[in-house]
Amino acid sequence: MQDPNEDTEWNEILRDFGILPPKEEPKDEIEEMVLRLQKEAMVKPYEKMTLAQLKEAEDEFDEEDIKAIETYREKRLKEWKALKKKQKFGELREISGNQYVNEVTNAEKDLWVVIHLYRSSVPMCLLVNQHLSLLARKFPETKFLKAIVNSCIEHYHDNCLPTIFIYKNGQIEGKFIGIIECGGINLKLEELEWKLSEVGAIQTDLEENPKKGIADMMVSSIRNISTYDSDSSNSDNDAK
């Protein structure tokens, strides 16, 4: 079959009568590459700018760009506000007793508040404060507070420390009072994180209770001791 793109007099006649399609022009690879690079370079400069830079460069854009900039600025502002709202806290903050109602009971709607009542003379309280400081950074959407217990409750006994209250919408959703409930003197960071997540105050990425292995070992040990005592008792009865 004859090549329709071949330069022959017959093909030219056929093209004139519309029998053959117009001859395809050979593509210039260099020209194609230039066009592609130009297209890639047509990224609007404002898409790489901060909000402050956009404000400064407003006079350099045409009317079409300004409309696009306004839309883009609104989008960036929404993203920034959402991020700020999510990362509102991020630290363990100290409050006094007279701030308790405003900061805890009357905190904004649907906000989780974790407050630790402590005395610096109680070693376990210092440990809890260390853990809560780290958790406050990890979960900035939750408000973490601490308060010297004497400023909130008079004559509060050391046996009840540490005391952790978890609030939401003015209601106590969870509480850990005393060393045992708070996790013991060897409390690990992950263990406290799990406790708070069980109440709902934080969304942890831990897949299971860090103390589960220890609890299983204790249960296993108790069962072994019970089995041993039972066997010993039966042996004594047989001997009689």
TrEMBL record:
Record domain Phosducin: where: 34-202
Gene3D superfamilies: Glutaredoxin
Pfam families hit by this protein: Phosducin (PF02114)
SUPFAM superfamilies xrefs: Thioredoxin-like (SSF52833)
Any one annotated GO CC term: cytoplasm
GO-annotated biological processes: protein folding
Protein family (similarity comment): Belongs to the phosducin family.
Protein name per its UniProtKB record: Phosducin-like protein 2
Organism the protein comes from: Mesocricetus auratus
Gene: Pdcl2
